[in-house]
Design a protein that fits this description.
The protein has about 210 residues and is mainly α. It has a domain of about 130 residues. The chain has five helices and no strands. Helix 1 runs antiparallel to helix 3, helix 1 runs antiparallel to helix 5 and helix 3 runs antiparallel to helix 4. The longest helix is centred in the middle third of the chain and has 48 residues.
């Protein structure tokens, strides 16, 4: 839909460029007489309108290239084309405008082309705007669960930052218990052995026991 909208904006820019050049030539009576079109009076007003039309054509070219301008420019120029087409039709058919047969055909053709542009631009701009808004809301909804879980560009998905022992401010502090030094006389190798009883009989495995006694 956006590709179609850009194509229509491009052809609308070409039409406005041609109209602007024609209006800039308002002082040339022979040109308007050959086309059988009414000449703007005074010619200064026609030339000012030609400058504005060429400026609108340049804006349409920019909207064709820059996607950020496409929707806003298409919506505005769509209504401008619609109103312009209605004015041209009313003045050509119902009001007393000094225009002859071929000139009337030119004006009605211009009105038909402007209406076609308006019919395409206004609904297409609305659809493209709604689709871009839905895509933006979807992207926001996808980012919110990641932010709630502590995800970030420097974090792995699904792992909270507070569970990382990387020494960051958000990571928990790992405390090291101090070592306890035992007092003298305690510890390995310092066990107290009981004194042997001299009256106790030697065991069977004693070395001084006589096996024949």
């Amino acid at each position: 839909m956006k590709v179609l909208l850009r194509a229509v904006l491009f052809f609308d820019a070409l039409l406005d460029l041609l109209l602007g050049i024609l209006l800039l030539a308002s002082p040339f009576t022979t040109l308007y007489a050959a086309l059988q079109l009414p000449q703007p009076q005074p010619a200064l007003f026609g030339q000012l309108l030609g400058v504005a039309t060429i400026g609108l054509s340049w804006l349409l070219f920019q909207a064709t290239i820059n996607g950020q301008l496409t929707v806003a420019v298409a919506r505005t120029t769509g209504y401008v084309n619609l109103v312009s087409a209605l004015l041209v039709t009313v003045w050509t058919l119902f009001l007393d405008i000094p225009v002859q047969g071929v000139g009337k055909v030119w004006l009605l053709t211009l009105a038909a082309v402007l209406i076609f542009f308006a019919i395409v631009q206004i609904p297409a701009a609305k659809k493209v705007r709604l689709r871009e808004r839905q895509q933006a809301e979807l992207a926001t909804a996808e980012r919110e669960p990641g932010a709630a879980n502590g995800d970030s560009p420097n974090n792995e998905p699904g792992v909270p930052r507070t569970a990382r022992p990387n020494g960051s401010p958000a990571s928990p502090e790992y405390r090291r218990e101090p070592g306890i030094t035992p007092p003298p006389g305690y510890g390995p190798g310092t066990e107290v052995m009981p004194e042997p009883d001299p009256e106790a009989l030697p065991t069977a495995n004693h070395a001084r026991q006589n096996p024949h006694s």
